[in-house]
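PROTEIN DESIGN WORKSHEET
SECTION A - STRUCTURE
LENGTH: 318
TOKENS:
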């Protein structure tokens, strides 16, 4: 059985790994990005590094805990216990605590996907733009190039993108899924800095600040990663990017005294799932098409892993 998996985020790589371990399964992964990880990516700017998507992950299910053990033993995943505060404009910091382990991958968030994908067949910089059925198989194409013929195609892209690729998906259950966008501001910060590592920010365009270089195993100059509030990001969807950058820099400077020498901006169009599908995965058995990812079950890395591992179990049982 030959399977094409679209997307090399945590759902795609963990699905490909599980399917590849089944007898007679041959899996190829395609991702349009330059690197692995999807929303668990890292951005390097000079001496600064930023996990500009997922900041950490939790492991609440025994399945994910067991899966992570190999990577924890190899030093590629560690618990992160930052000094965390709550901040608001014109208010003093309040102490906060995390009540469960929060994990990060090393040396950056995409380190986990890279390790999982180490022995997988992955093609990066390859945006699948069409799939066509002929002789009972799916033929994938990217920029006019034929990527081969497959028995099944599994997409881990958000539903809007999956539906553009998959034929006859109008009116499908996936229509209910909704995402919030998120702007990420990337600040290189030399000079004196606050003692806290992470701040949850209230009543501001900004919702999260984290000194990325203080996460375990990072090799970077002081790098402040800022996430904008979801509603604010949505409201500024059409705003000129330079203006968004300036508005966010101004918002940060009203909360914390820093003098960045590097300022970058990234917009995540599909950042956090606000309405998930509410089922483990999506499958059209007759057409031999399937989809999985965080958006099936929730909004977290662990949801993406769980959705992918349940789809792999389904393949293993059919
Ligand atoms: C700003 C932000 C903060 C977050 N914070 C956290 C957090 O702290 N904790 C947490 O648990 N989760 C967090 N998340 C959510 C977490 O990142 C996701 O739940 C998880 O990474 C989703 O993994 P996935 O594999 O389902 O999807 P993705 O990582 O989005 O992977 C899908 C992949 O498909 C690829 N793709 C799409 N279309 C195509 C195509 N046509 N051809 C080829 N490739 C294609 C994309 O390039 C992408 O790599 C955050 C997300 C964002 C954006």
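SECTION B - SEQUENCE
RESIDUE ASSIGNMENT:
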């Amino acid at each position: 059985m030959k399977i094409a998996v679209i997307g090399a985020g945590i759902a795609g790589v963990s699905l490909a790994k599980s399917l590849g371990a089944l007898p007679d399964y041959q899996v190829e992964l395609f991702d349009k990005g330059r690197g692995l990880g999807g929303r668990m990516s890292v951005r390097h700017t000079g001496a600064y590094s930023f996990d500009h998507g997922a900041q950490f992950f939790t492991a609440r299910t025994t399945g994910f805990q067991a899966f992570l053990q190999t990577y924890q033993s190899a030093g590629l995943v560690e618990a992160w216990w930052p000094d965390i505060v709550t901040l608001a404009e014109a208010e003093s910091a309040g102490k906060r605590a995390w009540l469960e382990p929060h994990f990060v991958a090393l040396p950056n968030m995409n380190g986990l996907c890279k390790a999982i994908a180490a022995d997988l067949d992955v093609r990066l910089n390859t945006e699948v733009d069409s799939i066509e059925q002929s002789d009972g198989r799916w033929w994938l194409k990217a920029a006019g190039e034929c990527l081969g013929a497959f028995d099944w195609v599994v997409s881990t892209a958000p539903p809007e993108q999956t539906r553009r690729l998959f034929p006859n998906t109008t009116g499908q259950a996936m229509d209910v899924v909704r995402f919030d966008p998120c702007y990420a501001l990337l600040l290189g910060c030399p000079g004196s800095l606050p003692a806290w590592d992470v701040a949850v920010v209230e009543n501001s365009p900004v919702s999260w600040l984290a000194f990325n270089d203080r996460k375990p195993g990072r090799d970077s100059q002081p790098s402040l990663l800022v996430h904008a509030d979801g509603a604010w990001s949505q409201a500024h969807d059409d705003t000129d990017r330079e203006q968004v950058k300036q508005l966010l820099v101004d918002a940060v400077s009203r909360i914390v005294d820093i003098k960045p020498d590097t300022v970058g901006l990234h917009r995540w169009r599909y950042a956090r799932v606000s309405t998930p599908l509410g089922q483990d995965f999506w499958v059209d058995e007759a057409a031999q098409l399937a989809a999985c990812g965080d958006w099936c079950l929730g909004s977290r890395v662990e949801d993406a892993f769980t959705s992918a591992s349940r789809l792999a179990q389904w393949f293993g049982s059919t």
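SECTION C - NOTES
The domain at 1-36+117-177+277-318 is CATH 3.50.50.60 (FAD/NAD(P)-binding domain).
Residues 6-12, 30-33, 38-40, 53-57, 127-128, 156-157, 161, 182, 184, 227, 268, 271-272, 293-294, 299-301, 304 surround flavin-adenine dinucleotide (CB under 6 Å).
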